[in-house]
Design brief:
Layout lengths: L1 H22 L2 H4 L2 E4 L10 E5 L2 E4 L2 E11 L2 E10 L2 E11 L5 E5 L4 E8 L3
Length: 119
Amino acid sequence: MKPISLTLSISGLLLLSSQVLAERSITDDAYGTYSASGCGSLTDQSLVVSKGALMFHESYCEIVSEARDGMESSLALLCSSEGEEYDITAQVSAYMNGNLLVETSEGLSNIYEFCSDSH
């Protein structure tokens, strides 16, 4: 009887872990500084990921909505740059090596190398 109880508890924990993962944003897991042109100083090929936002060169994009499937997210973003606001969508895929593939509705498609977990 005890092994069945233990199995039920483990199943409950696995279900809870899946629910927590589904509720988190990809920005919670991918927080940090990235570069499509090699790590070093921030350039026009840099990406900074913070909680609820992506910061590209001269553009700040806040996540308006997110549909997450494991380590891939479809994002609706409200961006601002040079005094203007605009909406874009983005697909973000996180790789096991820490890098990100980012593809946007504006035609941007880059693999960003993880550089550091600080900004």
